[in-house]
């Protein structure tokens, strides 16, 4: 190779390594054979572009028909190089010749279900027992049963022990026995909710023993003095944020999620005064779909004035019952209509730039200083998840979205929502923020995101807390190990 050509190849490879698309395009127009030339290390322009994650450069080289099967001295193709350096979106682009499709930008879904905060399913709902009044009464009085106590829907917790090991949660749920809450169970205003029984794999097997059952109690009168004798350090956790994020993963799982999801439910005193609760109210079901909002009850009260309301046994459904004159020999007649209150579906999405190396994050005025997170919004009636993702991103940021891919979901009890987590690919990059929706939206490079994830002192923004599904969606996109 002549010195002139050697210098030309060196310059071409250097431009490819730096991602100078314009210069490489000009050089290839003058000498197309440069495309597959190798440097002293045996690397081609495509390999160098893959090493340094230059998405646009790779698209250019692929469009010109470069050799994707060429290997360096280590036997690596450009795709192998991308995989070695963790550039998964580049590897997917190199897996098939680029034809303008942007689906390869989307990260692959994990084969195992991710462990998301609030999502730990540790109880068996025992649906077959929820109408068995005898069994429920026996479990409520059993010395083996566990009770979680709430005062105005704030859970009773204990602080972390002084000698606790590093990494343990700051607070833990108080798990009480029947003897500790005996007095509360006798009070007429105490609402008892059957949560379920421990799953088999979580308990020590004892022949003849049934699984331990769990209940949640909610009182309107402050039971602090009563509880001081049991645990003088116990206190009621005030407010869902950030209080609920201080708990351990198990405590934040099904038990707490099911209980706290009813913050706007019939347990609220103002509404409860208007409702005649039947004696078996303590048998209410607290499935994830179960949130009874005040407006739902008030709506029923408006539609059925003068008719007492009650909660149907073991389900968060409302039934308006027509109570006839007590002097009438006729029995009560039940209306055929029922109202149920599922959790509100919310889409939360990480918008990925078409170059695969940037993501769109936004911040609301209510966010802590410096924090950016995924865009999110409620699904409207008649919308699919994909349609809601595209609409919300466009409304909040002005960015058009193409492919949408579901990743995972999270039950979020503040208020009762089902957060449906997605990744999606942007078809445009210009941002036009709707100030009524969010305060700011910006594109962040993968390097900037990783810097924020590891809490580098030079990070340009703060990551959402690990308990939020947004944390998982962003981290999964970076390709970082799940333990980081």
TrEMBL record:
GO molecular function annotation: metal ion binding; NADH pyrophosphatase activity
Domain of life per record: Eukaryota
Signal peptide: none
Coiled-coil portions: none
Catalytic activity: a 5'-end NAD(+)-phospho-ribonucleoside in mRNA + H2O = a 5'-end phospho-adenosine-phospho-ribonucleoside in mRNA + beta-nicotinamide D-ribonucleotide + 2 H(+)
Cofactor: Mg(2+); Zn(2+)
Domain Nudix hydrolase intervals: 342-467
CDD domains (alphabetical): NUDIX_NADH_pyrophosphatase_Nudt13 (cd03429)
Keywords on record: ANK repeat, Hydrolase, Magnesium, Metal-binding, NAD
Enzyme class (EC, first level): hydrolase
Pfam families, alphabetized: Ank_2, NUDIX
Cellular component GO terms, alphabetical: cytosol; peroxisome
EC number: 3.6.1.22
SMART domains in UniProt: ANK
Biological process terms in GO annotation: NAD+ catabolic process; NADP+ catabolic process
ANK repeat extents: 41-73
Family: Belongs to the Nudix hydrolase family. NudC subfamily.
Protein name: NAD(+) diphosphatase
Taxonomic source organism: Triplophysa tibetana
Lineage start: Eukaryota, Metazoa, Chordata, Craniata, Vertebrata
């Amino acid at each position: 190779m002549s010195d002139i050509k050697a210098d030309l190849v060196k310059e071409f490879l250097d431009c490819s390594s730096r991602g100078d698309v314009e210069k490489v395009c000009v050089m290839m127009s003058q000498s197309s054979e440069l495309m597959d030339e190798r440097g002293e290390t045996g690397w081609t322009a495509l390999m160098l572009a893959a090493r340094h994650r230059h998405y646009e450069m790779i698209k250019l080289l692929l469009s010109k028909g470069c050799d994707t099967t060429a290997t360096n001295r280590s036997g690596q193709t450009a795709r192998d190089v991308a995989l070695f350096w963790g550039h998964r979106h580049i590897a997917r682009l190199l897996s098939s010749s680029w034809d303008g499709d942007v689906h390869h930008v989307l990260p692959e879904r994990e084969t195992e279900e991710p462990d998301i905060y609030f999502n730990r399913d540790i109880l068996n709902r025992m649906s077959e027992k929820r109408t068995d009044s005898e069994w429920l009464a026996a479990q409520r009085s059993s010395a083996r049963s566990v009770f979680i106590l709430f005062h105005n829907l704030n859970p009773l917790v204990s602080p972390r022990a002084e000698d606790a090991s590093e990494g343990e949660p700051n607070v833990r749920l108080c798990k009480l026995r029947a003897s500790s809450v005996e007095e509360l169970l006798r009070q007429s205003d105490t609402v008892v909710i059957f949560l379920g029984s421990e799953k088999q794999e979580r308990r020590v097997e004892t022949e003849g023993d049934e699984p331990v059952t769990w209940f949640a109690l909610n009182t309107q009168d402050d039971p602090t003095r009563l509880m001081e004798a049991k645990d003088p350090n116990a206190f009621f956790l005030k407010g869902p944020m950030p209080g609920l994020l201080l708990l351990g993963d198990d405590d934040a799982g099904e038990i707490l999620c099911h209980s706290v999801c009813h913050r706007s439910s019939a347990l609220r005193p103002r509404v409860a005064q208007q409702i005649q609760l039947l004696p078996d109210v303590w048998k209410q079901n607290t499935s994830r779909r179960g949130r009874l909002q005040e407006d739902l009850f008030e709506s029923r009260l408006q539609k059925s004035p003068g008719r007492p309301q009650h909660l149907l046994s073991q389900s968060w459904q409302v039934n308006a019952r027509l109570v006839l004159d007590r002097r009438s020999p006729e029995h009560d007649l039940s209306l055929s209509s029922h109202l149920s209150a599922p959790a509100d579906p919310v889409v939360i999405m990480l918008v990925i730039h078409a170059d695969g190396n940037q993501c769109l994050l936004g911040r609301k005025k209510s966010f802590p200083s410096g924090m950016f997170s995924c865009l999110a919004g409620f699904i409207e009636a008649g919308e699919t998840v994909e349609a809601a993702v595209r609409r919300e991103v466009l409304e909040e940021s002005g960015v058009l979205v193409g492919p949408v891919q579901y990743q995972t979901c999270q039950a979020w009890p503040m208020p009762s929502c089902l957060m449906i987590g997605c990744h999606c690919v942007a078809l445009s990059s210009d941002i036009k923020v709707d100030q009524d929706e969010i305060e700011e939206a910006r594109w962040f490079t993968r390097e900037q995101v990783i810097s924020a994830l590891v809490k580098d002192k030079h990070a340009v923004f703060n990551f959402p807390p690990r308990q939020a599904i947004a944390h998982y969606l962003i981290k999964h996109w970076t390709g970082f190990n799940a333990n980081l």
